[in-house]
Amino acid sequence: MKSYIVGGAVRDALLGLPVKDRDWVVVGATPEDMLAKGFRPVGKDFPVFLHPETQEEYALARTERKTAPGYRGFVFHTAPDVTLEEDLVRRDLTINAIARADDGTLVDPFGGQRDIAARVFRHVSDAFLEDPVRILRLARFASRFADFTVAPETLALMRTMVEAGEVDALVAERVWQELARGLMEATPSRMFAVLHACGALARIVPELGPDFPEHGGAHAMRVLDHAASVDAPLSVRFATLMRPLEPARIVALCERLRVPNDCRDLAVMTSREHVQIGNAPAMDGAALVKLFTRCDAFRKPERFEQMLDALALDTPDAPFAPAPLLRTALAAARAVDAGQIAAACGDNKAGIPDAVYAARVSAVTAALPAQNRQ
Predict the structure, then answer these.
(1) Torsional class of 104: left (φ above 0), alpha (ψ -120 to 50), beta (otherwise)
(2) Residues with Cβ < 8 Å from 89, sequence gap 6 or more?
(3) Based on the number of CB atoms within 10 Å of its own CB, is 59 exposed (0-12), middle (13-18) or buried (19 or more)?
(4) Which end of the chain is more exposed for a tag (fewer CB within 10 A), N or C?
(5) What's this model's pTM, rounded to 2 decimal places?
(6) How far is CA 342 from CA 22, 100, 337, 338, in A?
(7) Residues near 249 by Cβ (< 8 Å), separated by ≥ 6?
């Protein structure tokens, strides 16, 4: 029985990056051996155990066989005679198929160190063909490691998978999970470039259009990378990506991929209101209050602020002109005491909304520059 650190921890250490999590593979052991040493089983599809002290994951060395389309159609086999190389060969990329023994010795049967030095994403074996999630993972890695390129033979393999309909078998939750993780990397545009290059983008996010990102999405990609450079949250990054689309297309995309509500709502609102926001310096108090009401800014001012952030990213080299006025106007409108107005209306409950609206318009108008009070 012997344990090895595998995957991302080894890769990141070789790249000189901080190692956050360590995964282990165990060769020459049975589940009973692991239980006898105090490990706690947690794996559902194959034996994975938590170390009794460190709580790190230890998986028994395994082989796998594809039995159905998609990423769930696999049968796994674990046994003491499964070798480390047999376990590593099932992994996606050579840079993730390196193991480190307790004494620091590296086991690298597929040239992962060579590809790290050359900054190349290369598949380990034709087993890559069997799991369409690997297309998404590779694209996500491209957004993290922006100086890596995809090996031509690997890109050709990805195209073959797309043409065979493998990506069509991906479940929505997994697609969104990988897209969201890629959006939060340092250069998210690379993810979309790789997905487009292999033909997968048009299959999993057809709303973006067939020429995305080279043509209609080129500006969106620059804005998205700028959002990453200022550490914008996921909802803001997603809103910058979706802004060129019509709200109805955004809703359709979000429903299909089961995008979280906060990301969907901000993206739809940003797309719907960006023209009005741009015209805000010319609006009067009534128009601004209607804008705030439409955006639910009185209840959710933080989301309105996120919309301003998303739109400001569109012009990174200049201040976002409407923002100061909108912030001043919204603060004035929110300062109106709706409860006090409701109490003053007494039994005239039906008149409360109009009274609150009028008070907000008056407050916003008073806070605006003279030219907006006309």
Answers:
(1) left
(2) 97, 109, 110, 124, 125, 127
(3) buried
(4) C
(5) 0.87
(6) 59, 69, 9, 6
(7) 207
Give the integer Cα–Cα distance in Å for 281 and 9: 51
Question: Tell me, what's the pLDDT at 110?
Answer: 96
CB atoms within 10 A of CB 373: 12
Determine how β-strand 2-6 pairs with β-strand 99-100. Answer: antiparallel
pLDDT digits (tens, 9 = 90+) for 258-272: 999 999 999 999 999
Under 8 Å between Cβ of 158 and 167: no
Type of residue numbered 59: A
Helix (H, G, I), strand (E, B) or coil at 327: helix
Which of 184, 171, 198 shows the shortest CA–CA distance to 241? 184
d(CA 168, CA 202): 11
Separation between Cα atoms, residue 282 and residue 199, nearest integer Å: 44
Phi then psi for residue 152, to 5 deg, are: -55, -40
Kindly write down the DSSP assignment for every residue of 213-229, as one continuous string: TTSTTHHHHHHHHHHHH
